[in-house]
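Per your request, structure below.
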């Protein structure tokens, strides 16, 4: 018999919100990559760029949604789910901070609102994941 792992209410809530965001980004990237790129003021240089957007954003975020679905269903230990989320959010947010620290901070005011919101979501996801991991112990 497979052991069921029950996440706390907090953990389940974070997983559900993250799953919904991942599903939204993944489906948008697969179905309308141009719209996703436009919202972030990024440009595709043709079919290869659209393929990359579908693969990197679409495929990755849908895989993340499936992973989170397994966590919500109790098929994965909450500690494992939150360790993965902590690494993912921490890595992405660190990359954003490094970009700004390398002298690109003045560019931030020119970012579209969608990109500024993504910075906040990454930071909030990192904090929420750390709390979720802590509550697994």
């Amino acid at each position: 018999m497979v052991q069921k792992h029950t996440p706390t209410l907090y953990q389940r809530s974070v997983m559900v919100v993250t799953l919904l965001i991942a599903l939204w980004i993944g489906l948008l990237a697969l179905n309308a990559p141009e719209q996703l790129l436009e919202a972030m003021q990024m440009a595709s240089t043709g079919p290869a760029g659209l393929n990359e957007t579908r693969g990197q954003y679409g495929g990755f975020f849908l895989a993340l949604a499936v992973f989170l679905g397994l966590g919500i269903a109790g098929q994965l230990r909450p500690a494992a789910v939150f360790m993965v989320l902590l690494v993912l959010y921490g890595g992405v947010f660190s990359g954003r901070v490094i970009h700004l620290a390398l002298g690109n901070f003045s560019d931030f005011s020119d970012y579209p609102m969608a990109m500024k919101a993504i910075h906040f979501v990454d930071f909030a996801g990192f904090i929420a994941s750390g709390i979720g991991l802590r509550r697994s112990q």
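The CA atoms of residues 80 and 133 lie 8 Å apart.

Regards,
D.
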